[in-house]
């Protein structure tokens, strides 16, 4: 009987250690996932900022092109 109790106690302790290790592993995995998620979000924000910058630049180029076309037209009319 003592031997059975000792075996059950040993098994319970092993299960508790196994559970604790699994919980530790899970917390480590969660931290890793959070770190990867933050990294992805940072990269997405940088990408969105780059897109906005490109759109702003393209818009400025379009306005300058339109202004230059208007100036060219006015010069052409003035020369005629």
From TrEMBL:
The name of this protein is Uncharacterized protein
Q: What are the Basic and acidic residues biased-composition ranges?
A: 29-50, 61-80
Which stretches of sequence are listed as region Disordered? 29-80
| Phylogenetic placement of the source organism | Eukaryota, Metazoa, Spiralia, Gnathifera, Rotifera
């Amino acid at each position: 009987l003592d031997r059975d109790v000792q075996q059950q106690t040993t098994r319970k302790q092993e299960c508790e250690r196994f559970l604790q290790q699994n919980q530790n592993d899970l917390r480590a995995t969660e931290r890793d996932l959070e770190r990867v998620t933050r990294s992805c979000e940072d990269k997405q924000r940088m990408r969105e900022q780059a897109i906005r910058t490109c759109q702003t630049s393209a818009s400025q180029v379009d306005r300058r092109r339109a202004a230059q076309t208007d100036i060219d037209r006015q010069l052409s009319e003035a020369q005629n």
